[in-house]
Amino acid sequence: MRATDAGTAAGLWLVVPCYGVGNHILGVLAQVPPWVEGIVCIDDACPEGSGQLVAARCDDPRVRVVTLAANQGVGGAVLAGYAEALRQGARIIVKVDGDGQMDLSQLARLVAPILLGQADYTKGNRFTHSRHLRPMPGIRMVGNTLLSFGAKLASGYWNLFDPTNGFTAIEAMVARQVLELPVARRYFFETDLLCHLGALRAVVRDVPMPARYGDERSHLRIRAALRPFAWGLLRNTRARLLRQYLVVDFPMATLEFLLGAVLLGFGISYGLANRGADPAGGAASAGIVMAAALPILIGVQLLLQALHHDLRAMPTEPIHPTLRAVEALEHRLRQATPTQSVIGAD
Questions:
Q1: Model pLDDT for residues 323-342, shown as the tens digit of each residue
Q2: Is pTM, for the whole model, over 0.90?
Q3: Does the first or last residue of the chain, that is N or C, have fewer Cβ atoms within 10 Å of its Cβ?
Q4: Architecture field, domain 3-243
């Protein structure tokens, strides 16, 4: 089967948020491969009128423009695009920024794991090779590295990196689930979405790809976004640990985590409280040192063991085949006549 036929048969749609991208959006749309079935451009109340520009100057029949009455942020625009693509019958939805930072030649690699049934959601990762990072500004490299660790802890996807990468693909049945969740609407969207996908037990895969930067303008203000990102990661980490280790299940890792945290806290507190226990000002006695060090050592070991369990608890089986099977079965049951239902029951 040719790539054109495969892409069309897959029901592949692009969602392109449009805000302040008037200088780039037409060039991005011109690069969309012919095997993409449809394109949804979301004008997020753009002051430059990006949506109007596309409607007036883009003659690609695959393009549909949706204009939002008020600015909803990148997350709100993407979710609106998901909803429209699903109404059009999409089976795989790819999110592409309108500023030209994403290399559409990587599109096939991005959607392949979903087409093969290996993943529910895929995302780009610019950190897989040093040559991919050369165009990336240093401040972004440091920020992405720190954010990646926080996202691993908050989402439970320890195998992922570069959580703010916006070049993503999602299977349609999983996208329907996402639309029902309270996903962040602003710049925390991509990271928050990973946390919600973790709660759904969806399989997420990284796809290596190079970074691209040109003359586009970034609307992200790092200092303004720092507090919401930090608070969001802390909130999602707390919610995940409570859900995964107290509500949904109570594995041995729960006891290891709780006991490890207690012993570590006790050892540190005891050591600090008794660091000046010798009236003569000398070193603390061997008994005090051992009473502080032993709980710390055991606590650290228990926490490492709990972390090992958490690493092994990542989702490994995609959920979209099951969701599609359930949908097909429910559709057949709805189409069945009352007589057929009674006969089936007998």
A1: 999 999 998 988 875 655 54
A2: no
A3: C
A4: Alpha-Beta Complex (3.90)
